[in-house]
């Protein structure tokens, strides 16, 4: 029964001479640097919550910033209480940085090859729903927020909208250029 497709894992690790996840290392370093800055300077003085949060609806990312802050200070229990995903992110980012260092020094990269996408998508959706339910159950803890008088989420969103529009326009321009070059090659 070893050939039974139902029991195969949906992904497998492979050591290869090519890095198939090139941007992952830079993203992990940037995330750890941002988290390290929070550990040194404290949480942002901005209310990052959306309108649903203020209505008592907690999303799966609620508590993530405080959780990452706590995890990088070594308070993993507190980080887990705020959001279990924060501990996974910090440990995962550290593992990715180690992968990056080993790959650059040794010229061999540990790549994760997805062999079956559907089980990963189903597992991800189940975990997302479970995390959302868990976060809603901890709404009393997560509703404790910044002091009154800090900048609100609408102000933060208003500042971010032009940046997102510029980023989308740049991405579309790059895509058009790439298509134009592909058509002339």
UniProtKB/TrEMBL annotation:
UniProt-listed InterPro entries: DUF2752
Entry keyword set: Membrane, Transmembrane, Transmembrane helix
Transmembrane segments: 24-43, 79-98, 119-135, 155-174
Protein's name according to its UniProt entry: DUF2752 domain-containing protein
Superkingdom assignment: Bacteria
């Amino acid at each position: 029964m070893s050939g039974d497709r139902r029991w195969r894992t949906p992904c497998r690790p492979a050591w290869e001479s090519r890095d198939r996840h090139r941007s992952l290392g830079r993203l992990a370093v940037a995330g750890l640097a941002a988290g390290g800055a929070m550990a040194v300077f404290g949480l942002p003085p901005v209310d990052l919550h959306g309108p649903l949060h203020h209505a008592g609806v907690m999303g799966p990312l609620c508590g993530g910033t405080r959780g990452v802050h706590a995890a990088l200070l070594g308070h993993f229990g507190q980080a887990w209480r705020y959001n279990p995903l924060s501990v996974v992110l910090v440990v995962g980012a550290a593992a990715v940085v180690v992968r990056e260092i080993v790959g650059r020094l040794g010229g061999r990269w540990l790549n994760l090859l997805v062999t079956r996408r559907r089980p990963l998508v189903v597992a991800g959706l189940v975990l997302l729903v479970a995390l959302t339910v868990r976060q809603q159950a901890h709404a009393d803890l997560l509703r404790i927020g910044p002091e009154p008088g800090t900048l609100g989420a609408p102000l933060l969103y208003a500042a971010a909208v032009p940046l997102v529009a510029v980023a989308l326009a740049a991405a579309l321009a790059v895509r058009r250029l790439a298509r134009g070059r592909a058509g002339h090659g």
